[in-house]
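Changelog-linked ticket: heme C example.
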Amino acid sequence: MKYLFALCLFPLPGFAQDTALTDPTLIATGQQAFLDYCSACHGEEALGENGPDIQGSILKDVTEAVKGIDQMPEIWLEDGKPEAIAAFLMSLNPKVAEIKLRLEAAKQD
Ligand code: HEC
């Protein structure tokens, strides 16, 4: 729980926040939330099923997607869950996550 408070108290810019999402407890929380809310369509390992492969998705991808896109319905998540799910997805494919973070950082410059 401690880290969630830290995230709330000290909101960091997108890039720094994403790179901080490596806490194993946060990843475990995210895996559970992913199994509850996302795996029915994206598969247990996020490799795709009724939805696409989303391994390596970063926080921005998650927050955008849960607003609903085309075939994906809007999904309501509690505070902190999008961060946890992003941490889990990033942990599944850190290389893809890193590339996405670099692209985002470049866009913001
Ligand atoms: C009812 C099925 C369904 C559920 C549940 C679902 N998704 Fe999706 N998701 C989809 C489909 C289908 C797409 C492809 C949307 C499109 O582009 O038409 C998608 C796309 C995405 C994308 C974008 C992928 C890309 O390459 O653009 C992300 C990220 C994503 N979902 C994350 C999530 C997360 C996180 C959850 C759980 C909170 C979730 N989805 C739950 C069906 C689902």
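Closing comment: Example verified and attached. Confidence is low (pLDDT under 50) at residues 5-12. The chain has one domain: 21-108.
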